[in-house]
Write a structure and sequence with these properties.
Number of domains: 1
Radius of gyration: 15 Å
Helix content: over 70%
Largest sheet: none
Shape: elongated
Structural class: mainly alpha
Distance between the termini: 42 Å
Strand content: under 5%
CATH superfamily: lambda repressor-like DNA-binding domains
CATH topology: 434 Repressor (Amino-terminal Domain)
Order of helices and strands: HHHHH
Number of strands: 0
Number of helices: 5
Length: 86
Amino acid sequence: MRSAITDVLTSGARFIMDRMGSHIGRRIRSRREELGYGEHEFAVLVGVSAERVSEIECGKDRPDAALLVHIASRLETSVAYLFADN
């Protein structure tokens, strides 16, 4: 049986992960647009579908670590940049 504390912690962690995913997605979109890549063009460059790029940028899909490193590389930046607040 799950306790109320576990439920609160789980929902809090889910909230933080959702917010982080949205933040990373906005950073990816911003940098992609800075470099002049369209969504489809960037998807081909990264090796995923344009739909997946859109979902990542909207925070609906969270890329695993390997894909995040690959995306950062294609965006000519670091993974740390994608997490940064500024």
